[in-house]
Each structure stands twice: as structure tokens, then as C-alpha cells.
Design a protein that fits this description.
Layout: E1 2-8, E2 11-18, H1 21-32, E3 42-44, E4 47-49, E5 60-62, E6 66-74, H2 79-93, E7 96-100, E8 104-106, E9 117-126, H3 130-143, E10 158-164, E11 169-170, E12 175-176, H4 185-194, H5 207-213, E13 220-222
Antiparallel strand pairs: 1-2, 1-5, 3-4, 6-9, 6-10, 7-9, 8-9, 8-13, 11-12
């Protein structure tokens, strides 16, 4: 038995529990009388169903249990295309992209003799465990041509896990929250746009407070003409 949410233009309306497709359809049909202009596509447990020929169409999906914040970046090749491809693959494999920041052009951090980066922060609703998220984003990086050479070197795409809920974790392969988040304006500024009140579980400060305390003086410039065109 799965729990489901009915989503309408970003709003979430509890649709109860469903034991099967027919019951889910009936439950949503009953709810349709109380929800105006619902979404046009229905998704049931990874199966797409289209309610054609009726204004009572729905978008239904299993409730995601976790929220992770990711940072995309890249400074080689077609930066816009690489970030767009990464966003698409994240939406297909990791979870639903709930929020995305504007695109920002940023100066390289740590190793400065390289081209400027393009960065963007995402908020993703996922059912995956942190280790599974990491595995998927590493595979996405590889598919998009990422070659790991020197630390902080130029790359086609980089995807970092900044937060996973309020979880703290330190293993050989993954540290949560990201250990350099509070030191990097290229991560803090995009996060400031989509989650200014997100609290760091170790420092007990919000993103806004971390940004105000940041000693990073590198430029982070919003590309204003890209704020809408490159969102999922």
C-alpha cells in the first residue's frame, strides 16, 4: 500500500492511500470536484497514465521521504548544455527537482588558473539513501564527460551533495553536510536564493547567516537572462 499526493501547480493536497490503480483513479476523480485546473499528466508508481479528453487530469506520485540539496557546476565545454543535461538526468534518476536557483557565473575556488564556472543549486525530493544519491550523481558526471584529474581542476560537470535532510554523515566517500559549503560563496549564493532559512545541522546557522559570515570574496554573478529558461 502506497501513500500519494495530488499536486496542483506546486501545491500539495493529501489524496489518502491507494491499493491499486483503479482505486487511485476513483479517489482522484472524487477529489477533482474540489481541485481546479489540476496538472495534465498522471504518474502511478512509475507508470504514466494519461487521462485524455477530460479536464479532470491529475499528476499523482508516491510521497518522497527526503529532501536533498545539490550544487551543479562546470567550466568546460558548453556549460549551459551540461548543466541542463545534468538537471534532466537528476530528475530522471535521483528524484523530483522541486526548486532550482538561477544560473550564476562564478570565479574558480581553490585553483584559480582556469575558466569561470557556471553554478546552480537544486532542491530534490528523493526516496534514495545518501549513498544511492552519490552513486547516481557520480554516474551522471561520468556520462557527461567528467574526468577526475587534479583536485579542484576544470571539469565539464560537477555535482555536489550539499545537504540531505538535516543528516550528518562522515564516511570514506561522503561527508554531510558538504564540508566546504560554508566557505564557498558559489554554493551559498545559489542556496540563498532557494533555501535561505535552511539550517546547517552542525553550525546551527541558516544559509543566510553562513553567507553573512563568509570570508570568501570571489565574485558570484547571477545571469539574469537565464533565470527562467534553464529551470526544469
Amino acid at each position: 500500500m502506497n501513500n500519494f499526493l495530488l499536486k496542483k501547480h506546486g501545491a500539495k493536497v493529501w489524496a489518502g492511500q491507494s491499493e491499486g490503480l483503479s482505486k487511485a483513479s476513483q479517489r482522484l476523480s472524487n477529489l477533482s470536484q474540489r481541485v481546479k485546473n489540476p496538472a495534465k499528466t498522471a504518474v502511478f508508481n512509475l507508470i504514466s497514465i494519461h487521462f485524455k479528453g477530460t479536464p479532470k487530469s491529475f499528476y499523482i506520485c508516491p510521497m518522497s521521504k527526503h529532501k536533498t540539496h545539490l550544487l551543479l557546476g562546470g567550466n568546460l565545454g558548453d556549460r549551459h548544455a551540461n548543466l541542463a543535461a545534468a538537471r534532466k538526468l537528476i530528475g530522471q534518476r535521483v528524484g523530483t527537482v522541486v526548486k532550482s536557483s538561477s544560473l550564476y557565473e562564478t570565479q574558480p575556488w581553490g585553483k584559480t588558473d582556469q575558466p569561470d564556472f557556471l553554478n546552480q543549486a537544486l532542491e530534490v525530493a528523493t526516496d534514495l539513501k545518501p549513498e544511492e544519491v552519490l552513486k547516481d550523481i557520480l554516474n551522471i558526471e561520468k556520462e557527461l564527460g567528467r574526468q577526475r584529474e587534479d583536485k579542484w581542476s576544470a571539469r565539464t560537470i560537477d555535482i555536489d551533495i550539499l545537504f540531505y535532510d538535516a543528516k550528518t554523515l562522515k564516511t570514506k566517500d561522503l561527508t554531510l553536510p558538504h564540508p566546504h559549503l560554508h566557505e564557498r560563496n558559489f554554493a551559498l549564493v545559489p542556496m540563498l536564493e532557494i533555501a535561505p532559512n535552511k539550517q546547517h545541522p552542525i553550525f546551527k546557522k541558516t544559509i543566510e547567516e553562513l553567507y553573512e559570515a563568509s570570508e570568501d570574496d570571489l565574485d558570484v554573478v547571477m545571469l539574469e537572462d537565464e533565470t527562467e529558461a534553464n529551470r526544469p
